[in-house]
Write a structure and sequence with these properties.
The complex is a heterodimer of chains A (about 300) and B (about 280). Chain A has about 300 residues and is mainly α. Chain A contains twelve helices and two strands, in the order ααββαααααααααα. The chains are: A mainly alpha (about 300), B mainly alpha (about 280).
Chain lengths: ~300, ~280
C-alpha cells in the first residue's frame, strides 16, 4: 500500500494532466471551429453571390434567390443603439451612486437584484415586453409623438434590450469604479474640490477605459440577444424610418426561419451566413475592447 | 452656488434612478406573477400535454420541465468536466506562462460574448455534419459549448483571488500540481465553484435560442438521448404566439415556473456560498 501510493499518484497526475491538455486544446479550437463551420455552411451562397453586394442590398426574397442583408444589419445596429442610449446613462449614474454615495445595505440589495435580473431568461423579458412595453408604446408613446404604431417596433426592442443588458453593464461599471485607488479621490478632495467635482474630473477620467469596456460588453450582449427582441420588434423586412416602425434584427432572422430553411434552396446557407456575420461583428468588437483595456494596463 | 445645485441635482437623479431600478425589478416580477398565477395549477406541472392542449384543452408542461432539467443537468455536467480542469490549470499549471494564460482568458472572454443563437446555428451545422437529428444529445452538446465559457470565467474570477502563498506552501511540501489544484485550490474555491455551477445551470435552463435548432420539440418526455425534447423557454415562446387566450395564459404560467426556478437557484447559490465559506482557510 505504501509502495503503490506514489505510483497511483503519478498515474493520477498523468491522467489529469492529459485531460487538462485535451480540454484546453478543445477550448482553444472552439472559436476557430465555430467560425470555420459557419463559413463552410455559408459557402454555397458565397459562391454564387458577392459578399459585399449582399451586405449592401436591402432586397430580401429567398424564393427568387435574392439575399440582401442590409435591412437586417441596420435593424440590429439600430435596436442596439437605442438600447445603448437608454442603458448607458442609467447604468453610469446608478453605478456612481452605488459605489460612492449609497449606504451598504442598498448596495447589497442591488447586488441581489442584479443577480436575479441577469438570471431571468430572455423569453421572460420577452413576455414582459409584450405585456407592458408594446401596449404602452401603441397606446401612449406613439400617439404622443403623432405616430400610429402597433407597438411591435424598434423602440420596444430597444427598451427590452436595455433592461436585459442593465445588470451586466452595471455590475462591471461598479467593479471599475470600486477599483480606482482611493488616494486619487482623497488628493482631489484635499485640494478643495467638491465630491461631485471629484467624481466628474477624477473618477470618470481614471475609469474611462473600464467604463468603455463595460459599455462595450453591454453592446455586444444587446447585438446578439435573440428571443426577447424577436418577440417585440415586429419582424418586418424593411429599413425603419422612425423608432415606432418595426424592424428585423439578424438574430431574429435566424431564429424565425429555421423551420423553412430546408425547403428553399440557399436559405439555410443564408441563415448560416447571418450567424457568421453576427459572430464576426461580436468577435471584432470584443478584440477592440480587449486591446483598449490591455493597453491601459500596460 | 451653481456647483452645489449641480451636485444636489445629480445626487437626487442618481437616487431616483437607483430606486427605480429596484422598483422596476419588482414590477417585472409582479407583472409576470399577476398574469400567470391563475393559470398555474398542479395539472400544469404534473402532466404532459393531452390531445387538444394547444387549443386550450387539458394537460400540462411536464414534458418541457423535465426536458429542460435533463438538458441543463447534462450540459452542466459536461461543462464541469471540461471547465474545471481548465479553470484550475489557468491558476496552477500554466501560472508561470503569463502569455498563455492571458491568451486563454481573452479567448474565453470572446466566447462569453458570442450570442447563444450563433452557438445554436453552429450546433445545427455540427448536428447535420454528424448526422444527428434534433435531439436531447444535440441540445446538450450545444448548451455545453454555450455555458463552458460562462462557467470557467466565473470560477476563474474566484480562483484568481487565492493568494499565491498557498501555492508555494503546497509545492514546498512536495505536493504535485494536480494535488495542489484539486486539493488546495479547488477546496479554497468551493463556494465560488458552487455559484459558478448554478450560474451555468441557470443560463443553460433559461436559454431558448441555442436549443431552438438543436433540441426540437415534442409532447413526450424523452426516454433516450437521441429523442427530441421540449424545453421550458420554447414552451413559453410557442404558447405565447397562439391566438387562444387559455394557451397564452399557460405561457405566462410557464414563465412563472421558469422564473421561480431561476430565483430558487439564485437564493440557493447565495446560501451555499455562505455555508461553504467555513471551509476556506
Amino acid at each position: 500500500m505504501a509502495l503503490s501510493f506514489p505510483i497511483s499518484r503519478k498515474l493520477m497526475d498523468k491522467v489529469s494532466n492529459t485531460w487538462l491538455n485535451v480540454a484546453t486544446f478543445f477550448l482553444l479550437m472552439l472559436p476557430l471551429v465555430i467560425g470555420l463551420g459557419l463559413v463552410l455552411e455559408s459557402l454555397p451562397l458565397l459562391r454564387t453571390h458577392s459578399f459585399f453586394q449582399m451586405i449592401g442590398s436591402a432586397e430580401w426574397s429567398p424564393l427568387e434567390g435574392k439575399f440582401g442583408f442590409y435591412a437586417f444589419i441596420i435593424g440590429s445596429l439600430l435596436v442596439t443603439l437605442i438600447s445603448f442610449l437608454f442603458s448607458a446613462p442609467v447604468c453610469l449614474l446608478a453605478a456612481i451612486y452605488l459605489t460612492q454615495y449609497a449606504p451598504r445595505w442598498v448596495t447589497q440589495v442591488m447586488y441581489f437584484v442584479m443577480d436575479v435580473l441577469a438570471g431571468i431568461p430572455s423569453v421572460v423579458y420577452g413576455v414582459w415586453g409584450v405585456l407592458v412595453v408594446v401596449p404602452f408604446i401603441s397606446q401612449y408613446a406613439a400617439p404622443f409623438f403623432g405616430f400610429t404604431s402597433t407597438g411591435y417596433c424598434l423602440l420596444a426592442g430597444g427598451v427590452v434590450l436595455a433592461i436585459m443588458s442593465l445588470p451586466y453593464i452595471l455590475n462591471m461599471l461598479m467593479e471599475v469604479l470600486r477599483n480606482i485607488p482611493i488616494e486619487l479621490k482623497e488628493a482631489s478632495l484635499s485640494l478643495g474640490a467638491t465630491y461631485w467635482e471629484t467624481i466628474k474630473r477624477v473618477l470618470l477620467k481614471q475609469g474611462k477605459t473600464g467604463i468603455i469596456a463595460a459599455l462595450n460588453l453591454g453592446i455586444s450582449k444587446a447585438l446578439g440577444e435573440t428571443i426577447a427582441v424577436l418577440m417585440v420588434v415586429g419582424n418586418v423586412v424593411q429599413v425603419p424610418q422612425n423608432v415606432f416602425q418595426p424592424a428585423y434584427p439578424l438574430p431574429a432572422l435566424i431564429a424565425n426561419n429555421y423551420g423553412d430553411m430546408m425547403s428553399i434552396p440557399m436559405y439555410g446557407s443564408a441563415l448560416m451566413l447571418s450567424a457568421l456575420l453576427l459572430f464576426l461583428i461580436i468577435i471584432v468588437f470584443n478584440i477592440l475592447t480587449n486591446v483598449l483595456v490591455y493597453q491601459r494596463y500596460k | 452656488m451653481i456647483k452645489k445645485i449641480e451636485e444636489k441635482f445629480f445626487l437626487w437623479l442618481m437616487k431616483i434612478i437607483t430606486g427605480s431600478l429596484i422598483l422596476g425589478f419588482l414590477f417585472i416580477l409582479w407583472v409576470i406573477v399577476e398574469k400567470g398565477w391563475h393559470a398555474l395549477s398542479w395539472q400544469m406541472i404534473s402532466e404532459v400535454p393531452q390531445g387538444g392542449f394547444y387549443f386550450g384543452k387539458g394537460g400540462g408542461i411536464l414534458n418541457a420541465i423535465i426536458g429542460s432539467l435533463y438538458l441543463a443537468f447534462g450540459a452542466t455536467f459536461f461543462a464541469i468536466l471540461i471547465g474545471l480542469p481548465v479553470a484550475l490549470g489557468m491558476n496552477v499549471h500554466f501560472l508561470r506562462n503569463r502569455r498563455w494564460v492571458s491568451l486563454l482568458r481573452f479567448l474565453l472572454d470572446a466566447l462569453w460574448g458570442v450570442p447563444s443563437i450563433v452557438f445554436g446555428a453552429f450546433g445545427f451545422a455540427l448536428m447535420t455534419y454528424l448526422g444527428l437529428r434534433a435531439s436531447l444529445l444535440a441540445g446538450i452538446i450545444t448548451v455545453t459549448l454555450f455555458i463552458v465559457p460562462i462557467f470557467i470565467r466565473a470560477l476563474d474570477e474566484v480562483l484568481r483571488t487565492i493568494p499565491g502563498g498557498l501555492l508555494e506552501a503546497s509545492y514546498s511540501l512536495g505536493v504535485t500540481k494536480t494535488r495542489t489544484a484539486y486539493g488546495v485550490f479547488f477546496r479554497q474555491a468551493l463556494p465560488g465553484f458552487i455559484s459558478a455551477i448554478l450560474l451555468a445551470f441557470g443560463r443553460g435552463i433559461g436559454d431558448a435560442a441555442s436549443v431552438l435548432f438543436t433540441a426540437g420539440y415534442t409532447d413526450q418526455i424523452p426516454h433516450s438521448l437521441l429523442e427530441p425534447t421540449a424545453t421550458l423557454p420554447l414552451a413559453i415562446f410557442f404558447q405565447l404566439s397562439s391566438p387562444i387566450p387559455e394557451v397564452k395564459e399557460r405561457a405566462y404560467a410557464a414563465a412563472i415556473i421558469l422564473t421561480g426556478i431561476i430565483l430558487l437557484i439564485s437564493i440557493v447559490s447565495r446560501l451555499s456560498t455562505k455555508k461553504y465559506k467555513k471551509n476556506i482557510l
